Amino acid sequence: MNIILLGPPGAGKGTQAKHLTNTFGLKQLSTGDMLRAAIEGGSNLGKQVQLIVDAGDLVPDNIMIEMITTRITRADCAGGFILDGFPRTVLQAETLHEVLSLKKIKIDHVIALDVKLDSLLGRIRNRALEAPEDQRRQDDDEKTLKHRLSVYKEQTAPVLPYYEKLGVLKTLDGMLTPDEVSKKINEVLAE
Ligand code: ADP
User: Fold this and answer.
1) Tens digit of pLDDT for each residue in 72-90?
2) pLDDT one-digit tens code per residue, 7-17
3) pTM for the complete prediction?
4) Within 6 Å (CB) of ligand 1, which residues are found?
5) DSSP letter string over 85-151?
């Protein structure tokens, strides 16, 4: 079973991806985590993307597409994967669709977590406060946060109608508690 999780920063994608990993043994592919690991590790890729990620802008599509298509075909994804943080532009969604059809890999569910944008600032502020100091994200500061939300509105929100047109999008209320959202996700997967 392969799943795409969509939703703005702070919607709970990471939390629900972990639920899916624990419950169904799916591999979580978080592009944000992959980029942060590359930055932390000081690789060429990390150096290339650091300023972009810290500023809350999107890493160029070609880099992200290359990163995710290489990753998706590795053996640990054969039992199913969850995409968390990808696709983030319509071009990424279209290219993913093409690459997966060539490889005969099917996306079974596209789930969007719907959260009021004005509640997100508070959620991410809390996440930043709760994180141990050494794990705090550079891009969780106030100014960058607002920028990430506007980048979401402009570049990522159009991915939802793309999947809606394909008839595969399920939108769930992301304002519920994490457990309630997990239950709703389980219901979608059981359909
Ligand atoms: P959040 O969902 O909390 O905004 P992520 O951890 O998913 O954060 O991503 C952090 C940052 O990594 C993004 O702000 C962006 O700079 C970069 N990034 C992650 N995924 C992508 C992607 N698919 N395309 C472009 N940039 C990405």
Assistant:
1) 989 999 999 999 999 999 9
2) 999 899 999 99
3) 0.92
4) 9, 31-32, 35, 52-53, 56-59, 64, 85-86, 88, 92, 139, 148
5) S---SHHHHHHHHHHHHHTT----EEEEEE--HHHHHHHHHHHHHHS-GGG--GGGSHHHHHHHHHH
